[in-house]
């Protein structure tokens, strides 16, 4: 799983750097195929599709719903900005009961550039009609936190896995293993 995920991100970065865009699902399939081949694991098309479809069935962490409800009640507008496709994002929002808390998702499908491309992060400004300095960004991955910070978003890193901080880009001042940093970011 870790190798597949790593290869998937490599492919998104490669396509963005090369000015190409196949979309998340195509790259998830290609990266899974490459990973299975590299590990000499037999994996048919049906098995690969079943595994790729799991991105449509992601569970949120238990503290996400209450944190989003708190932010929404405080008047914050919220949206997902993700490399996942629109249909996967909508399926996950519905599955996790987040539809009433979040605005329509901002999929990189809209700009045909994966994060950390500035076009991807720029979707937040366009969607909310706000300056980047007025938009808080919560990242799951260290590289995404750095990219959002470089773009100019006040950023926090929800470092669930306790990963080592990125050395390129400097420290992310707000980083916790739960949604605490998101609440702190909203309080700034």
UniProtKB/TrEMBL annotation:
Regions annotated as coiled coil: none
Gene3D superfamilies found in the cross-reference section: HAD superfamily/HAD-like (3.40.50.1000), Putative phosphatase, domain 2 (1.10.150.240)
Record's keyword annotation contains Nucleotide-binding: no
Enzyme class: hydrolase
EC numbers: 3.8.1.2
Matching InterPro entries: 2-HAD, HAD-like_sf, HAD-SF_hydro_IA, HAD_sf, PGP-like_dom2, S-2-haloacid_dehalogenase
Catalytic activity: an (S)-2-haloacid + H2O = a (2R)-2-hydroxycarboxylate + a halide anion + H(+)
Keyword annotations: Hydrolase
Summary of the function given for this chain in its UniProt record: Catalyzes the hydrolytic dehalogenation of small (S)-2-haloalkanoic acids to yield the corresponding (R)-2-hydroxyalkanoic acids.
Family: Belongs to the HAD-like hydrolase superfamily. S-2-haloalkanoic acid dehalogenase family.
Name of this chain's protein: (S)-2-haloacid dehalogenase
């Amino acid at each position: 799983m870790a190798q597949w995920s790593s290869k998937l991100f490599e492919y998104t970065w490669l396509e963005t750097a090369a000015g190409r865009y196949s979309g998340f699902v195509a790259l998830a399939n290609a990266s899974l195929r490459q990973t299975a081949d590299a590990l000499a694991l037999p994996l048919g098309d049906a098995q690969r599709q079943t595994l790729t479809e799991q991105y449509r069935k992601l569970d949120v962490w238990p503290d996400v719903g209450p944190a989003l409800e708190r932010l929404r009640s405080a008047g914050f507008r919220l949206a997902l900005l993700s490399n996942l496709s629109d249909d996967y994002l909508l399926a996950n929002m519905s599955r996790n009961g987040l539809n009433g808390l979040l605005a329509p998702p901002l999929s990189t499908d809209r700009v045909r550039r994966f994060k950390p491309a500035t076009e991807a992060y720029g979707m937040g400004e366009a969607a909310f009609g706000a300056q980047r300095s007025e938009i808080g960004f919560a990242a799951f991955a260290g590289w995404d936190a750095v990219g959002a910070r470089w773009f100019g978003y006040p950023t926090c890193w929800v470092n669930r896995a306790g990963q080592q901080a990125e050395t390129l880009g400097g420290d992310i001042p707000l980083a916790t293993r739960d949604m605490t940093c998101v609440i702190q970011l909203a309080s700034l």
